[in-house]
Amino acid sequence: MLFNVISISEVCPKRFELPNLPSAFCYSAVESAFPEGMTPEQYNDVVPGFCDQHKAGASIATINTQVEQNAIAELLDSGRVKIRDTVMLGLTKFPLKENESSDWKWVDGSPVTFTHWSDEWEAEGNKQQAVMFKALGWKWAPWNTNVPHMLCQYEMCAWREQKSPMECYPDYYY
User: Fold this and answer.
1) E strand or H helix at 68, and its extent?
2) Could you read off the pLDDT of 89-147 as tens digits, one per residue?
3) Cβ distance 154 to 56 under 8 Å?
4) Angstrom distance (rounded) from CA 96 to CA 108
């Protein structure tokens, strides 16, 4: 089977970039100014829908495999996504629903099946959000303070036809 290569403009909406490794998502770092020490209520009111306010259908990034982690790290290192040194992920210990546990969870409700914690930060028990640090080789760290950018993801070609990437481009390599 031959694969066709498609350009970013065919798959990603404006301000979103396609990683060089296979991924079902385009990514963008969106400037954020959240209050220091957010309460669970503030977090739940603001963070899960933040990316969608900047591009309908976008969501805060979830990372479920090492391949996704590598693709995002490579994209952030490439300079195509403009950030300083830290991006917020959609991973939180805040209860997203009443009576929910305070274990780590993705804000979209999907289970945490993969982690990429930095060894020196993993044990931080009182932090409520997760970020990726450039200085740690894009490993994850628990965090509580304001982060200047949120990593947003957008499903490839959903913005064109409201279909999955494979439905949109079945013979293409991403």
Assistant:
1) helix 66-78
2) 888 877 666 666 667 888 887 888 888 887 766 545 666 777 777 777 888 877 766 67
3) no
4) 9
C-alpha torsion 138→87→169→158, nearest 10 = 160
Q: 3-class SS at 45? A: helix
By three-state DSSP, how is residue 136 classified? helix
> Cβ distance 76 to 136 under 8 Å?
no
Count the neighbouring beta carbons within 10 Å of the beta carbon of residue 58. Answer: 26
Length of the chain: 174
CA separation (Å) from 106 to 25, 87, 112, 132?
16, 15, 7, 14
Q: How far apart are CA 158 and CA 169, in angstroms?
A: 11
The Cα 156–Cα 104 span in angstroms is 27
Q: Which residues contact 14 (CB under 8 A, 6 or more apart)?
A: none
Place of tokens 């200085």: 135
3-state class of 102 per DSSP?
coil
